[in-house]
Write a structure and sequence with these properties.
single chain, mainly alpha, two-stranded antiparallel ribbon, 6 helices, elongated
Length: 174
Amino acid sequence: MSAPASNDPAKFKFLNDPAVLTKRHLQFGWWTVLVFIVLGLLLEGLQGFKAEIYLGAKNETRRLMWTLAHAHGTLFGVINIAFALTVRLLPEWAARERGIASASLRSATLLMPAGFFLGGFRFYSGDPGAGIILVPVGAVLLILTTFLVACGTSSIRTDRSSDRTGTTSFQRRS
């Protein structure tokens, strides 16, 4: 009895299936929004209680980094939701590019906010800590995702005929 091949094309096709990616990014996006809204409320609590760890003059770098983590995390959640809807609208988008864009976006969603948070967790003389190195890596992945999505949208055209609801249908460019 041999072990199943790890390069099984059917497995990768399933992982890059538009319905699977739509569900994955909708869930990931909404959970990300929830986590970073809660983080934002915690930061508001630190502000409201005038916590020295957050508001102290020597902690300005921490305040900035944690605020950036909250803002970027929330925005990334919304971007994941938009990505899910885009995948749903572009079922003909090439599976390989769609899969790369999906993995890149999920990675960027984790790396950028984590980099800001870790950069503010421990900092030195006003400079962010070593965790900040995750931010440019996440930024490159976000740029890659955006490029792949933009390229994917170029393969569609709008059909000016609309159904009775007035919506325009999308079709693959011939």
